[in-house]
Write a structure and sequence with these properties.
Length: 150
Amino acid sequence: MKKELVVRALENGTVIDHIPADKLFQIVNILHLDTMTDQITIGNNLDSSKLGKKGVIKISGRYIDPQEFNKIALIAPHARINIIKDYQVVEKKICEMPDEVYDVLHCVNPMCITNKQNVTTHFHVVNKEDRTVKCHYCERYIKAEDFILK
């Protein structure tokens, strides 16, 4: 007899799918899911025809704000975010790197004004494929592996 594990459908909340498996726990940290009291379902290293292995997060009763969306887009471009209301998908978003990001990353240049004064960080995305950004103030280029999220 074959047994099947069933994950309960989400009444209201957010599903983040197509997360590269090695980025899943960064997204868990971005969303501070360790402090949530509502139901969360996390799956990792699931088979994916596009990614090889992927992660999925289902968050009951919570929606992603624009700043969180931008952070996820920096870490896992092409992840898919579905907004669920009354068991129905009411909105689908594919994470894409924006052209600019504000107050999401720290500049890695210790001499940058954003590290010396209370100035909102501002980065221009210069290459969406390899996820390279440039600081608006000091013009330092930062690659994805060096991102320090706020």
